[in-house]
Amino acid sequence: MKKIVSLLIVVVLFCSCSDYQKALKNEDVAAKFEVATKMYDAGKYNKAIRLFEQLSASYRGKPQAEKLFYMFAQSYYKTKQYYLAGYQFESFVSGYPRSEKVQEAAFLGAYSYSKLAPVYSLDQTDTVKALEKLQTFIDNYPNSEYIAQANEIVKVLNGKLEKKAYENAKGYNTISDYKSALIAFDNFIADFPGTPFKEDALFYKYDSAYQLAINSIPAKMEERLNIAKVAYNNLLKFKADTKYKKQADEMYARVETDLQKFTK
């Protein structure tokens, strides 16, 4: 019995492959579409894609086109070809705005772009693009069943931008470019007021101001020491029991000592 079942499976697979090969060369677009649909339904998305590519120009504007282009986009999505999936889903939304699949397609298109977003340490151009696509979806379909998921993805992507901006600012501090660090930390805190890195950002801003002050020429030292003093107060105002308290207090003692030189 097992041998018979195995033989039937082999026969079915052979016939399927045979149908597929014939469909690739077949000029009959209706027959090609039928096989493409079978490939799609069977989860053979790469084979379906090759047939959809051949059919797309012929079917554009026809009644079956909506189904074809939906399956085409889904096939790219299922095979993790996210750039092409995003493009096809966007084209579907544009071409079939009244389709019952339009919200799903709009969401999956934006989601596909989010899958292209790299780790925070790399260039974040694709992350910004994905956020724009997701915001467009949220604006266009505020009551969609996909809104909660879209908002969660936005949160994750914003987290990448946030981490990138923080590490960039900290990087200036690490290489002792304290002027750039102060600007970068100011921008970071302004752009991400609710960031979980705020305590760290405030400390390294203080450290940058402190290092810049104590290494200044006498003509600029007093002004910069006072800037460091303000940075210290901002850190403690944000979190009085900061994990950096001991180090910050030691630095502050030096600031106060150096400032006394300018009051005599």
TrEMBL record:
Pfam families assigned: YfiO
Ranges for domain Outer membrane lipoprotein BamD-like: 30-220
Keyword terms of this UniProt record: Cell outer membrane, Lipoprotein, Membrane, Signal
Keyword Signal in record: yes
Alphabetical list of PROSITE patterns matching this protein: PROKAR_LIPOPROTEIN (PS51257)
Mitochondrion found in the keyword field: no
Protein name: Lipoprotein
Species of the source: Flavobacterium reichenbachii
